[in-house]
Amino acid sequence: MGYSSLIENLEKDGCLKTPLIKRAFNEIKRADFIPEKLKTEAAVDAPLPIGFGQTISQPRTVAFMLELLQPQPGDKILDIGAGSGWTTALLAFCVGEQGRIFAIERLRELCEFGRNNVLKYNFIKKKIVEFFCVDGSRGLPDGAPFDKILVSAAAEEIPPALKEQLKVNGRLVLPVKNSVWLVEKITEDKFREKEFFGFSFVPLINE
Questions:
Q1: Is 187 contained in some domain?
Q2: How much is the pLDDT for 205?
Q3: pLDDT at residue 188 tops 70
Q4: 3-state DSSP call for residue 67?
Q5: Is 5 part of any domain?
Q6: What does the buried/exposed string (b/e) look like for 158-177 if buried means 16 or more CB atoms within 10 Å of the residue's CB?
Q7: CATH code at 98?
Q8: 47, part of any domain
Q9: Which of 34, 41, 94, 149 could disulfide-link 172, Cβ–Cβ 3.0 to 4.6 Å?
Q10: Which residues are catalytic?
């Protein structure tokens, strides 16, 4: 199955709905974000290893999480657990030249791998994307507040620091154990939370 067939299947199954996110999936090729020896597996709807015990997430899961996050042109987004850089580049495509993506990856080797992959597109050159090799569980206080926060590794609970770093009306999408959570910030101290069951992620590592 080719990459375009994978996208068609995700659309057919209702995982990809928003036109902007569909365009991102078409333009940002998953093959550009995986190790050379796995390039032929790029269209497989499954997580793939990228080294250091980490994976590039299953396309279906990424589509589901981006649909919950709803990235918009001009958004300022924190991408935690950037790994291969695929979600970073998808988000960068969605926010466009007026937006900013702050990508965090704790493992320095993976941080470099992700950054080098994103360099295949123009997002770093255009100053849409910036990479930080730091502990993502604390968010990025210096860059806050954010319109949206996406986390691609599972926490044991929703980190309070991330809720604090959201703007009012902002959205946080993250895995907690084996569920994906959508957290919407209604006021400075009021949140709406919704849980979606049945997922599997590598753990979010704290220092």
A1: yes
A2: 54
A3: yes
A4: helix
A5: no
A6: bbeebbebbbeebbbbbbbe
A7: 3.40.50.150
A8: no
A9: 149
A10: 57
